[in-house]
């Protein structure tokens, strides 16, 4: 449907001329001949632009009525594009109306081409503004969803120590390197640090460095201008720019291609970068958090990670212990996950019987907290009574490791492919001590294919 324009003037000749012009250009119009009518129509109809005269009573030229009207509209609506029309010699009135919130001004008698250019521009700008408001609304919802639903659990001595350290460093702007096995909670702690920091009203932008291909690295991180390369049909904003004034979280930092590490170092040191295809230098202000399950010191020794980059990342290094080393966290975490899943399915929360509690506490947790979370969700779904027993955990407890949960069983494996695939990925990660690259290689998968499956 075409846009609806409200045209306000006390001269019927002007109204009919403008009505014809706008109709010929494909717009719908609605007319008002007094300020009162304008306010009534605006209260009832979804008008996309107001084109208004400033004088309504016979023989007045001061523009006072129009300015008052403008002021009243702007008290209620900041966004409606308003184009003001007035007669000769009224520069002062034009300036006054712009100060009161008019978007543009045209002198009478108008030139049709000029008026149409103004109307089209104002409609376009208003569309962009609506779109950006929608995006920022979506963004706020997503941020609230991400940070709102997870309650941090830390009951063990090492868990509490970790939380104290995190609270201490979060409020500084220091770069933080989080290390720990897969599923220990590195991404969650990164968000927690951001939420505690003075940047918490700005975005936390995450990048999984294992999923960024070498060829698209610069465009992904720094953005590109339109036409920078064959596929660059539109300009793109990179992650650094998106994170400006906020926090940039680089997950799986060890997987940054070596050839790109120098470029990353430069922007981290100088806070400056150029978009691909542009020579204009841009400035950014970000707080950096990185995470890895790899031993970066070893990677430096092996020559796959730059030493200078490591020194730039690890101002503060925080090690997140594996779940098997903080056993007192297991049951509180399990209960928190059962709470969460009960809320998700709107069902009562299940409890865990003492045999299952023992199983959970003696299991090795190669997939750490993530494995526990999935196990609790599965147990909630499969449990037939109000209490989860060992049989609901899907573990072969005599063997004590996840690998044996499948291998020690002579029954045919009748689970669906997705479940088997997930289990296999977990096993391989555990086998290779959380090293995703070696796990991917052992499964004959490319790094990006492996990450896609892992994220699924
Ligand atoms: N202390 C905790 N309290 C509550 N939930 C936690 C805690 N630690 C981890 N989790 C949950 O466990 C899951 C895995 O955590 P997360 O994704 O942060 O791990 P990770 O170390 O970043 O994993 P990866 O190395 O695979 O990226 C998430 O759903 C997270 O919310």
TrEMBL record:
This is Sigma-54 dependent transcriptional regulator. Keywords: ATP-binding, Nucleotide-binding, Phosphoprotein, Transcription, Transcription regulation. InterPro entries: AAA+_ATPase (IPR003593), AAA_lid_NorR (IPR058031), CheY-like_superfamily (IPR011006), Homeodomain-like_sf (IPR009057), HTH_Fis (IPR002197), P-loop_NTPase (IPR027417), Sig_transdc_resp-reg_receiver (IPR001789), Sigma_54_int (IPR002078). Residues 4-123 form the Response regulatory domain. It comes from Bowmanella denitrificans. The modification 4-aspartylphosphate is found at residue 53. PANTHER family: ALGINATE BIOSYNTHESIS TRANSCRIPTIONAL REGULATORY PROTEIN ALGB, TRANSCRIPTIONAL REGULATORY PROTEIN. Residues 152-381 form the Sigma-54 factor interaction domain. The keyword Phosphoprotein applies. The keyword Ubl conjugation does not apply.
């Amino acid at each position: 449907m075409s846009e609806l324009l409200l045209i306000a003037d006390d001269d019927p000749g002007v109204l009919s001329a403008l009505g014809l012009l706008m109709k010929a250009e494909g717009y719908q119009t609605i007319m008002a001949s007094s300020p009162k009518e304008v306010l009534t129509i605006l209260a009832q109809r979804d008008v996309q632009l107001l084109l208004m005269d400033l004088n309504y009573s016979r023989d007045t030229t001061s523009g006072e009525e129009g300015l008052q009207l403008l002021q009243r509209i702007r008290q209620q609506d900041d966004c409606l594009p308003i184009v003001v029309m007035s007669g000769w010699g009224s520069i002062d009135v034009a300036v006054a109306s712009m100060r009161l919130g008019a978007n543009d001004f045209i002198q009478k008698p108008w030139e049709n081409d000029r008026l149409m250019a103004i109307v089209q521009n104002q409609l376009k700008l208003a569309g962009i503004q609506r779109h950006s408001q929608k995006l920022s609304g979506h963004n706020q919802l997503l941020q609230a969803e991400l940070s709102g639903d997870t309650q941090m659990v830390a009951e063990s001595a090492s868990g509490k120590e970790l939380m104290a350290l995190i609270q201490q460093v979060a409020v500084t702007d220091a770069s933080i390197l989080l290390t720990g096995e897969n599923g220990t909670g590195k991404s969650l702690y990164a968000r927690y640090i951001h939420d505690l920091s003075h940047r918490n009203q700005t975005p936390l932008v995450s990048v999984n460095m294992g999923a960024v291909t070498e060829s698209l690295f610069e465009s992904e991180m720094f953005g590109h201008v339109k036409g920078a390369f064959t596929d660059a049909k539109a300009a793109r904003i990179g992650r650094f720019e998106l994170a400006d004034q906020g926090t940039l979280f680089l997950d799986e930092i060890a997987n940054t291609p070596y050839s790109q590490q120098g470029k990353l170092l430069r922007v981290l040191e100088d806070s400056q970068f150029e978009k691909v295809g542009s020579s204009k230098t841009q400035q950014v202000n970000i707080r950096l958090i990185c995470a890895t399950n790899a031993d970066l010191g070893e990677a430096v020794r092996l020559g796959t990670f730059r030493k200078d980059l490591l020194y730039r990342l690890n101002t503060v290094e925080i090690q997140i212990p594996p779940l098997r080393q903080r056993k007192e966290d297991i049951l509180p975490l399990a209960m928190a996950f059962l709470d969460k899943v009960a809320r998700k399915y709107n069902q009562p929360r299940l409890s865990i019987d003492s045999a299952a509690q023992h199983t959970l506490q003696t299991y090795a947790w190669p997939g750490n907290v993530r494995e526990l979370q999935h196990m609790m969700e599965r147990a909630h779904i499969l449990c037939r009574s109000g209490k989860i027993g060992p049989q609901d955990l899907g573990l072969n407890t005599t063997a004590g490791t996840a690998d044996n949960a499948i291998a020690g069983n002579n029954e045919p494996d009748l689970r669906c492919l997705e479940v088997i695939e997930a289990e296999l990925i977990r096993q391989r990660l555990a086998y290779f001590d959380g090293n995703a690259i070696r796990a991917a290689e052992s499964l004959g998968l490319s790094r990006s294919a492996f990450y896609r499956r892992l994220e699924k």
